[in-house]
Each structure stands twice: as C-alpha cells, then as structure tokens.
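Worked example 3 (structure in, sequence out).
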C-alpha cells in the first residue's frame, strides 16, 4: 500500500486531573489551501493539516467518576494500528471478543508450565481487557463488566424535569370551533359526515380526523382528567415519554378507593347491580360479594366454599349476573378476575363481562353473585384470553333474598382451557336444572380507563408484574377476611 506524507497529525487529549475533574478537548483546523499530490500518482491530492490553537472545553464529572482515567489520559499518538502491544487497555469490539473466546476454547489463556501469570499476561494471546487469568489458570470476568452503563429507569437522574416542564405544567386549551377548519389540520383531508368526522385533540385543541387522532394518553394534572383522552399524533409523541409518570400519579388505579362503606347505612351495598360501568364499581361489587360470603361462612359453614378448594385456587373470578327466562334463560353480567402469584399475594384485577344462554327445566328470574374458582394455571390463562367460551351444567334454587347455585363448567379460549367451579348466592324467585353456555370477554376499554396504559394486556395484569393498584385495597382486604373466616 502506498504511504502518505506526514501531513496529518492528531492532537492528543491531555490528562484528566482528579483535582478539578475536568477534561480538555483539542481540535485541529485545516489551514492549508493546497492539496499535495499523492506519492503513488494518479493526481489525487489530500489536504495538509497542522495543529491550531487549542480550545478548551470543560465538563464537570459527577463525584462517582473521580476514579475515571487513573491519572492517565488518552493519547492518540500512542495508539498503534497493528496487533502488537497496546499502550493501554484495548477497546471492546467484536474482533476482540471473538479473539478472547477462541483463546478460552484453545487454552491459550492458561498459564504454561514454568511460566508465571505475569509473563502470560504480557503475551499477546488475547487482547480482551475484561478477561483475566487466576493463579490456577482459570479465567474470570473483571468486576467492571457487571457495572451498569446507564442509570435505572425510575431513578431521579433518569428523568429530566426541565425538559418536560412545559408539558407537565400545561393548562387545558380552548378548543377551536368546528367551523374554523374544513380539512384535517394534519393530513389536510376534507371532513365528511360519515367517513371522516371531526375530532378535537384534548391537549392542543386542534381539529383532526379519526385517523390522525387515534392515540389515547393521560394528560397533565391541570387538565383534571384521570381517563386517557384522545390526542392528535403530534401531541401523542410529546406525551408518550411522560405516561409512566402520569400512570403512577393521576390514573384511576393510583387513587384511593372512595366508596368503601358496605353496611346497612349505604344503599349501594344492599344489592349488587349486574352491570358495572367502571373498574371502581367492579371492585366495590366484588368486595361486597366477598364480604357476604364471609358472613355466610361464619353463620353457616356448610353453605360456604370449602377451604380446601380456596386454598388450592390459583385465581378467582367474581361476577354479578342477572338471569331470567322459562325453559330458555338469558344471562348478563360483569365482574373482575384476580390471580394468585407465586408469593401468595393477589394480582391486579382485570375487568370481564359475561353473556349466556341456558336451556332446561327452569323458570323465573334471579340475581346471582358468582365466585368462580380457578383451580390451576390453565384456568387462569383461559381468562387471559380476549374472549373464551364455557359450557357446563348446574342447578339453581332461589326464593327471596337467599338462594343457592352450584355449577361446574369447562372453559376454552385462545390462551388455553381449564375446568372451573362456580359458587354463588342468588336473590329472586327461580328454580331449575339447566345446561349453560356462556361467552366471557375481557373489557379492554375498562382496563384502559383504570390503568391508563394502552399497551397493557390481560396477561400482564394477571401473570405479569403489574403492581397492585391502590384503588383495589378494599378488594384485597375482603379476600384476606374471607380466608380468615374459613380458617377460624
């Protein structure tokens, strides 16, 4: 290869001093206008470079970086291009890593007989600096390999408040009138009555089409909205980095439960309605159902759920269902499901709804509070499905405020299948034996309004690491009370 004239030189970085923990960066400027001719001919020329006056740029290191450099700076003039001895520790790249792996496999990293480990380390067998050899010849990784290269996500230093101060302190805008624009403010497509309607962005107040405002985000605290709101694509990109903070501070799941009185002084606790329109209502209904079962277990243990069944349960689904008909009956209700984690605690709740039909010798109407026991992890995974089907047989008898329903069913969904056992207390006038079929679906919109995270799935809630929401504390207290009443 043809050599170049010594017209290019690199200035080196001066040493890093611990006393002031600053470093200086020297830049080189091109000063010659001529392009000297390359020795090999061909007419190609290259600019000449000489060192200019150095400009100092300082950066204040945090105290934890005082040990960086060990009083030695980086000097590019000491760097060699060959594979010989290095003036400092080599960089970690693919070539060096592969060379180190080959050295480990072939045994070149071990100390030869009659040779000290210090002599072995001087040989260029492997230039991977994070691999070392002990006195017995074993290879170990340097402790610096385990040091994280970035701060944790939720540490205070990981969030720059000043960069998002304008967004976090934003106030609700004044919406533009519908007549102010006849086209979408992003894609400029004209609005139509049916296919392209007008939608206001809740963060900026602009008018956009449905396609350009599909995102849902939690808004800053001054908007006084706890449910995710429709925003345009541009505002979604601005708000998305802040969703983790807003979910942990202003979402419905992070708030304390407001309705926690379930005695005779509150009419809300007298009767569970079959349909709940929010997760908070479902938590209240489920808590009321569990407290009713706790009272039944104390007064009449024979009518309660067997303790052995509850101890082995991997999850519970709690619903309130209305049922009515003659020969052919119809069922509709909503509720929630929780699973038991490996440490014995209960997971966050996931909202569900159920519709079904029953056929058999039956007549009347009743309101039923169901507790579906999920005996194994397969049954829990069934409730992780967006929708699953159940088929079973049961008998029901209700007269006035006290009734009894026993069912056993088989459930199957896209995440699995499993056998479940259903216990319930009913109110009304109904009697019959029937074959039951139900469709149970996860209420994704209810989960979104409660947790505020559009990326959260049912699998994350029931089997993942989602923290137990503060708003569900009454539910966990009722579960603990139920188990305590059965054990006493």
């Amino acid at each position: 290869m043809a050599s170049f004239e010594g017209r290019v030189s690199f200035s080196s970085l001066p040493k890093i001093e611990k006393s002031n923990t600053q470093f200086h960066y020297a830049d080189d400027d091109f000063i010659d206008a001529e392009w000297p001719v390359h020795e090999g001919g061909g007419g190609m020329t290259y600019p000449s470079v000489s060192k200019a006056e150095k400009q100092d740029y300082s950066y204040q290191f945090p105290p934890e970086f005082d040990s960086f450099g060990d009083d030695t700076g980086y000097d590019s003039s000491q760097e060699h291009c060959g594979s010989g001895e290095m003036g400092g520790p080599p960089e970690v790249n693919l070539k060096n890593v592969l060379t180190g792996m080959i050295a480990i496999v072939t045994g070149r990293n071990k100390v030869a007989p009659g040779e000290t480990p210090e002599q072995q380390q001087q040989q260029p067998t492997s230039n991977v600096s994070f691999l070392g050899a002990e006195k017995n010849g074993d290879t170990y990784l340097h402790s610096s390999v385990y040091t994280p290269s970035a701060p944790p996500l939720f540490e205070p230093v990981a969030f720059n408040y000043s960069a998002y101060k304008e967004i976090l302190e934003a106030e609700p805008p004044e919406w533009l009138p519908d007549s102010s624009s006849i086209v979408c403010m992003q894609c400029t497509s004209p609005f139509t009555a049916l296919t392209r309607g007008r939608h206001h962005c809740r963060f900026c107040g602009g008018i956009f089409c449905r396609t350009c405002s599909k995102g849902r985000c939690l808004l800053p605290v001054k908007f006084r909205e706890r449910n995710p709101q429709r925003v345009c694509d541009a505002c979604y990109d601005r708000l998305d980095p802040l969703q983790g903070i807003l979910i942990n501070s202003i979402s419905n799941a992070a708030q304390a439960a407001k309705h926690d009185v379930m005695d005779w002084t509150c009419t809300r606790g007298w009767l569970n309605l079959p349909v709940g329109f929010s997760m908070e209502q479902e938590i209240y209904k489920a808590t009321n159902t569990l407290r009713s079962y706790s009272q039944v277990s104390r007064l009449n243990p024979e009518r309660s759920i067997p303790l052995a069944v509850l101890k082995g349960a991997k999850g519970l689904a709690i619903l309130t269902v209305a049922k009515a008909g003659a020969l052919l009956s119809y069922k509709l209700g909503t509720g929630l499901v929780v699973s038991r984690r490996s440490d014995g605690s209960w997971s966050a709740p996931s909202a569900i709804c159920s519709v079904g039909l029953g056929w058999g010798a039956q007549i009347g109407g009743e309101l039923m509070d169901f507790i579906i026991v999920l005996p194994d992890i397969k049954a829990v995974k069934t409730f992780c499905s967006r929708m699953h089907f159940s088929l079973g047989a049961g008998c029901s008898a209700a007269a006035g405020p006290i009734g009894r329903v026993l069912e056993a069913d088989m459930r199957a969904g896209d995440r699995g299948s499993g056998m479940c056992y259903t216990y319930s207390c009913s109110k009304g006038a109904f009697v019959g034996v029937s074959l039951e079929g139900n469709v149970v679906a996860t209420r994704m919109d209810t989960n979104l309004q409660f947790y505020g995270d559009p990326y959260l799935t049912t699998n994350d809630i029931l089997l993942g690491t989602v923290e137990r929401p503060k708003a569900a504390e009454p539910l966990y207290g009722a579960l603990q009370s139920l188990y305590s009443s059965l054990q006493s």
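Notes: The first strand starts at residue 29 and ends at 30. Residues 1-87, 124-129, 144-157, 398-404 have pLDDT under 50 and may be disordered.
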